[in-house]
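[Automated response] Your request has been received and processed.

Submitted sequence:
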Amino acid sequence: MKAMLLRVGIDKGCGGCLGPIFQDGTFEYIPIPEMEDTREKRTFYNTQGIKNRPFSFYTPKKIHRQPIHFDPEFETFTYGDATSKRKSLLKLDMNDLLVFYAGLEPYKNNKYPTALYIIGYLKVKKIIDFNRLKADEIIQYSQKYSNNAHIKQIKGLKNLVIIVGDGNKSKILDKPILISEIKLNKLGRPYHVVSPVMEKLLGIKGSIQRSIPPRFIEDPSNLENLKNLLKI
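Generated structure:
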């Protein structure tokens, strides 16, 4: 068994903000704007969050009417990618963990830092490489996993890999898990690195500002620590 960590969700570079973390420790998972032509009807304006406010309440006006790229999605538990990350996704096996982290910032509180937090995970049930499918299989999987953001895109399915999670063993967390701290680079600009606590628990270190290449956790003791954190 192994785990793979990926950064997801809206950020300052793609969307112009971070998702909020609230005084009670809950958070809003706000995905990135959809940049491709899509059949997705949900926008930041018409999509309600956990506090009964639309996503547009927390996001810049310029993206309010844009479709949302829900990836991962925690309704049918899928995550897809057709970029260079596909190679890493294809290294996953059944029962591995695909763990998602996102940038969050405090909403009307100073209890939590602006940082990177684990927000959810998929327990891998199936790995689908669309490049290897026959025409009838493409139709079949496109219908079965039509809730995935990449299936909704108009451009086609070339290079797409979809990870399907076990619906009984995958979830978005009720409260996120802090995994980063801020350091300054040589130019004095802040960036996110693995916190000392998480470095010890998970066996990873250095910058996690981005997840290219994705981080893997394979050591049994580190995996056990991760499962304890996720309460699985």
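Summary generated for your ticket: The chain has one domain: 3-230. Residues 220-230 form the longest helix (11 residues).
If you did not submit this request, please reply to this message.
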